[in-house]
């Protein structure tokens, strides 16, 4: 195999691919990238047997063939080459090292057999549709902060996508929860998605997909079954297994009768939370919200550092209900308000019940936050 490719193009593809490769796996081949030069095209593939990423890039192919070399090592070498350099890769046969040259630089990478490189295989993916890249990016960005990291509840380790109907509208919903907060965002159901099953896309797949979306074309092609999902973003194809589990009936935890409504500017609120929370270094330290008509008082305390308090009056808030004191973990408050553009609305019931949080200017998103004892 012998080919040459422009350094920037090769680097961009390796950046997409190498993070999928399993660097700490006991199976060495899974740390490698499969390079295949055939039919005038160069394809790069990496997998950890849960996710598979493939990208096709232009290259000048002198001799067809295929090989596998360590993905992270090749990426680091190409990353450190000068811009606008032509990178030449040459392997005499499948069991010899891969020679890399660029200008006056040269190195050799040990290769592993192509025959040992696994293929995930997507299988039959009967449900296929397209979705605007900006819409998919928004669904992910506004929910992924709530993905659980507790491996014991593996069915929460991803975003739940499903088709639903509300008030006569067909919708695509993205939901994530870790038991402390819940994020639910919806959009118009894309054409062709009516038959999609409810799927839980794993956290790692979400992270890899999100990186692709910043450089993707205006539409993403999605194909899925009950066990696999595939995203095609231009020259990149990302295939992933789905989480084999049942997502909880999240509607049951969304309160229906929260009537104490607080409206406040996102920046005013987030800045005040950050200031009072700075009194304590404990991540789980609560911030207390004391509400009365026309006044919101935020406070936090630390046995070692003292007490911090800030007031937001009726020039910056709207609250006209019975007084209430309620506490939330500062990080959870910030995670949710980070999703809000301008004004945030809190709907409370009492100090121990879940609170609904909304972006005033974006009714498609709804968040639920569990309080803490204060």
From TrEMBL:
Keyword Ribosomal protein: no
Pfam families per the UniProt record, alphabetical: DNA_pol3_beta, DNA_pol3_beta_2, DNA_pol3_beta_3
Compartment(s) of residence: Cytoplasm
All residue ranges annotated as the DNA polymerase III beta sliding clamp N-terminal domain in the record: 1-120
Family matches, as SMART domains: POL3Bc
UniProt GO MF annotations: 3'-5' exonuclease activity; DNA binding; DNA-directed DNA polymerase activity
Domain DNA polymerase III beta sliding clamp C-terminal positions: 252-373
Example GO biological process: DNA strand elongation involved in DNA replication
UniProt-recorded name of the protein: Beta sliding clamp
Organism lineage string: Bacteria, Pseudomonadati, Pseudomonadota, Alphaproteobacteria, Acetobacterales
């Amino acid at each position: 195999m012998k080919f040459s490719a422009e350094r920037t193009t090769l680097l961009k593809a390796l950046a997409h691919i190498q993070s999928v490769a399993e660097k700490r796996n006991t199976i060495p081949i899974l740390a490698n990238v499969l390079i295949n030069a055939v039919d005038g095209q160069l394809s790069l593939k990496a997998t950890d047997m849960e996710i598979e990423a493939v990208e096709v890039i232009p290259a000048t192919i002198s001799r067809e063939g295929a090989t596998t070399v360590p993905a992270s090592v090749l990426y680091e070498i190409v990353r450190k080459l000068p811009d606008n350099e032509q990178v030449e890769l040459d392997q005499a046969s499948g069991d010899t090292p891969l020679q890399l040259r660029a200008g006056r630089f040269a190195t050799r990478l040990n290769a592993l057999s192509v025959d040992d490189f696994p293929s995930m295989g997507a299988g039959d993916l009967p449900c296929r549709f397209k979705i605007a890249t900006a819409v998919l990016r928004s669904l992910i960005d506004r929910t992924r902060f709530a993905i659980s990291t507790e491996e014991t509840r593996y069915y929460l380790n991803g975003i739940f996508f499903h088709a639903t109907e509300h008030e006569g509208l067909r919708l695509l919903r993205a939901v994530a929860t870790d038991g402390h907060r819940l994020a639910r965002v919806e959009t118009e159901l894309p054409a062709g998605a009516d038959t999609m099953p409810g799927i839980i896309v794993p956290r790692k797949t979400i992270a890899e997909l999100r990186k692709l979306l910043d450089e993707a074309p205006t539409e993403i092609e999605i194909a899925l079954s009950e066990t696999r999902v595939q995203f095609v973003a231009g020259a990149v194809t990302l295939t992933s297994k789905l989480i084999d589990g049942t997502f909880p009936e999240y509607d049951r935890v969304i309160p229906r009768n929260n009537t104490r409504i607080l409206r406040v500017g996102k920046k005013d609120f987030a800045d005040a939370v950050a200031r009072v929370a700075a009194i304590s270094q404990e991540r789980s330290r609560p911030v207390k919200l004391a509400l009365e008509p026309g006044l919101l008082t935020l406070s936090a305390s630390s046995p070692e550092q003292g007490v911090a308090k800030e007031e937001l009056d009726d020039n910056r808030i709207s609250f006209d209900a019975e007084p209430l004191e309620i506490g939330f973990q500062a990080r959870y408050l910030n995670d949710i308000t980070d999703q809000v553009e301008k004004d945030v609305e809190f709907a409370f019931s009492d100090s121990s019940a879940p609170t609904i949080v909304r972006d005033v200017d974006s009714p498609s998103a709804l968040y639920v936050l569990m309080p803490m004892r204060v």
